[in-house]
């Protein structure tokens, strides 16, 4: 310990962290203090450049008694990537992306890279990893939680293809966990990683992919939700190549579905055949279909600094079937006087392939992810009111689309035996709860 900090809370930092600890009097502090949803006032932000630095940051937190927040891309909806008065471990300097073995499509991606950077780095190799719908989201948050991306029905979740994780445990031990060396750690890092350790890098099996079919459609949505039911029927029969995301938008009593469709193929006939049934779901206007590089879906222009610019409230649930009651409830929520943004993401296809017990993401039979977002001034109250009638139709939830994690959301994200195993492993790897993002206590 040798470098003196000007902040009174921290008197010294370990030698290896010299120049990597940013306090409020540092001009680097302002763009580092906040996340996408949350303005933070941490006592310090540490910028590790190695697993050893991450261990040193954890040691510093222990010695100073500061609460730890872990950040990769800062897009976490609950704002857990920052705090007030604590220590943020910001992994953005750990952003290497390497193809380890082109033959087996194995790549190593560091946790602080953004998915736009990953797509750019893999494109020259003809490889891609399905991640999410936005290029600024960090590798660490998606790859420890799930990863419902533009290719989700073809590829599955991002976590389904993680073969090894390099982790710094809360006691500072650096571990590379794979199926042979530490299957429990690998299991928990794939879906519930936030409470077990700090992932520094992931070895992920990418897919062969350069170009995709991409189009947008707009469909009128009837109050009874029949359009949504027909969309769900089409997706249940669709080839795995087709993934879609639907945004419901209402003006007065009129609701429209804005559908983004991606076909994981560069074959015009495969793309045409996959998209054609969508035209039959109702009164549909379709834009021209383009064949574009996958990189255009998570482009570099998504990259930006986070400043708490989106103080929204978000929750989610998974649907097994789009029943008439569920469809009607979705349209009602989207058209409410205090509207919420409702997004539907197609699951199924490859997401159903792993057994529910294979990873800490147990939801392998549901077909639709419903995400609801409300905006200020009354975001939490508006969201709660809108979600109440939707909740009974859902069957589980995805941990990464939750801005107010609590006991109930934890149970929905990790049902039954998954909850027991996650709880046990969090206690084993992090007995003092240094990283614990929410329940269990
Ligand atoms: C605009 C936007 C679009 C999104 N789109 C999608 C989407 O299409 N598909 C999808 O699946 N999700 C999507 N999400 C949700 C996303 O998966 C989560 O918000 C995710 O946590 C963001 O990752 P991050 O690294 O940027 O988050 P951060 O804010 O950096 O981290 C959030 C939390 O995740 C945990 N964490 C992060 N990195 C690590 C690590 N290296 N080791 C251990 N724990 C870690 C920590 O608890 C941390 O506090 C979206 C979010 C936003 C805001």
From TrEMBL:
Alphabetical keyword list: FAD, Flavoprotein, Oxidoreductase
The keyword Metal-binding appears for this protein: no
Keyword Metal-binding: no
Entry-linked SUPFAM superfamilies: FAD-binding/transporter-associated domain-like (SSF56176)
Names of the cofactor(s): FAD
The FAD-binding PCMH-type domain, residue ranges: 38-209
GO molecular function, a single term: FAD binding
Family of this protein: Belongs to the oxygen-dependent FAD-linked oxidoreductase family.
Name of the protein this chain belongs to: FAD-binding PCMH-type domain-containing protein
Lineage: Bacteria, Bacillati, Actinomycetota, Actinomycetes, Kitasatosporales
């Amino acid at each position: 310990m040798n470098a003196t900090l000007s902040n009174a809370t921290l008197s010294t930092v370990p030698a290896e962290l010299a120049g990597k600890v940013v306090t409020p009097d540092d001009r680097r502090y302002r763009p580092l203090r906040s996340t996408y949803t949350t303005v933070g006032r941490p006592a310090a932000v540490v910028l590790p450049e190695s697993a050893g630095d991450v261990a040193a940051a954890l040691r510093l937190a222990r010695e100073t008694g500061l609460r730890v927040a872990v950040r990769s891309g800062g897009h976490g909806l609950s704002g857990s990537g920052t705090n007030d008065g604590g220590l943020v471990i910001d992994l953005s300097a750990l952003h290497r992306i390497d193809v380890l073995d082109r033959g087996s499509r194995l790549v190593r991606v560091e946790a602080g890279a953004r998915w736009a950077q990953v797509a750019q780095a893999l494109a020259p190799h003809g490889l891609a990893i399905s991640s999410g719908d936005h290029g600024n989201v960090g590798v660490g948050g998606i790859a420890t939680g799930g990863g419902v991306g533009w290719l989700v029905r073809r590829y599955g979740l991002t976590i389904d293809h993680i073969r090894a994780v390099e982790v710094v445990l809360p006691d500072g031990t650096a571990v590379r966990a794979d199926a042979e060396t530490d299957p429990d750690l690998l299991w928990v890092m794939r879906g519930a990683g936030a409470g077990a350790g700090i992932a520094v890098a992931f070895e992920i099996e990418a897919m062969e992919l350069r170009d995709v079919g991409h189009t947008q459609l707009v469909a009128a949505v009837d109050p009874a939700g029949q359009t949504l039911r027909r969309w769900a029927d089409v997706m249940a029969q669709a080839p795995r190549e087709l993934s879609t995301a639907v945004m419901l938008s209402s003006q007065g009593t009129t609701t429209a579905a804005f559908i983004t469709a991606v076909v994981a193929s560069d074959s015009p006939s495969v793309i045409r055949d996959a998209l054609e049934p969508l035209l039959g779901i109702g009164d549909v206007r379709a834009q021209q279909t383009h064949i574009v590089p996958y990189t255009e879906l998570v482009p570099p222009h998504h990259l930006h600094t986070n400043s708490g610019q989106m103080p929204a409230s978000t929750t989610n649930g998974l649907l097994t079937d789009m029943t008439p009651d569920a469809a009607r409830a979705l349209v009602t929520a989207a058209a409410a006087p205090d509207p919420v943004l409702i997004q539907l993401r197609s699951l199924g296809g490859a997401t159903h392939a792993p057994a529910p017990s294979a990873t800490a993401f147990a939801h392998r039979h549901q077909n639709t992810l419903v995400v609801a977002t409300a905006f200020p001034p009354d975001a939490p109250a508006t969201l709660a009111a809108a979600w109440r009638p939707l909740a009974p139709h859902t069957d589980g939830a995805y941990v990464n689309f939750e801005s107010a994690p609590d006991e109930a959301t934890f149970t929905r994200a990790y049902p039954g035996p998954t909850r027991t195993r996650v709880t046990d492993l969090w206690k084993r790897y992090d007995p003092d709860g240094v990283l614990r993002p929410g329940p269990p206590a």
